[in-house]
Design brief:
Blueprint: H1 2-18, H2 28-31, E1 34-44, E2 49-61, E3 64-73, E4 78-89, E5 92-97, E6 101-109, E7 112-121, E8 124-134, E9 140-148, E10 151-161
Antiparallel strand pairs: 1-2, 1-10, 2-3, 3-4, 4-5, 5-6, 6-7, 7-8, 8-9, 9-10
Length: 164
């Protein structure tokens, strides 16, 4: 019987080391409240690569996150947008923005949020597929792949940083 108990505890210890406890689920309202620095680049669109920087300011109230974004591209062009992100249930959000068409459904699983939306680029509407990942260093990375029908059009990588 002792041998059985030792084996059982050994297996439990091995299982604990092999499968660490799941990390706390990424909550948009925890990360984006307050000021967030933004740096990124977009490539494609027939214009090579463009870099941008800026900031976002977020407020959480009544199960909704209001994000005001201000970006400046290297060539001086400025972009502004206002995101309204409503929490429907844990891990599920609905978002609208002044810079997208319609709504984006956001689903969070672990450290990653995924969402899809349509956006006007020039005179064309493209579909953006975003993957937002909370990184080990405390930043959040969004990789956005944009396409029209089945053809890739552009890629945007954006880093959000709360660190001072």
């Amino acid at each position: 019987m002792r041998h059985f108990i030792r084996v059982l505890f050994s297996l439990f210890a091995l299982f604990s080391l092999t499968f660490p406890a799941a990390a706390q689920e990424f909550r948009l309202e925890d990360f984006f409240v307050g000021r967030t620095a933004v740096n990124g680049r977009i490539s494609g669109l027939g214009s090579g690569e463009r870099r941008f920087s800026g900031s976002m300011n977020g407020q959480w109230s009544n199960q909704a996150l209001l994000l005001r974004e201000n970006y400046v591209y290297e060539d001086g062009e400025r972009r502004q947008g206002i995101w309204r992100i409503s929490k429907v249930e844990p891990g599920h959000y609905i978002a609208t923005c002044t810079c997208i068409n319609g709504k984006a459904m956001i689903r969070v699983k672990g450290d990653t949020a995924r969402f899809t939306y349509d956006v006007d680029i020039g005179e064309k509407v493209v579909r953006a597929r975003d993957r937002m990942t909370r990184m080990p260093d405390g930043t959040v990375l969004i990789t956005s792949r944009m396409g029209r029908y089945l053809f890739p059009v552009a890629r945007r990588d954006t880093v959000f940083d709360k660190r001072p």
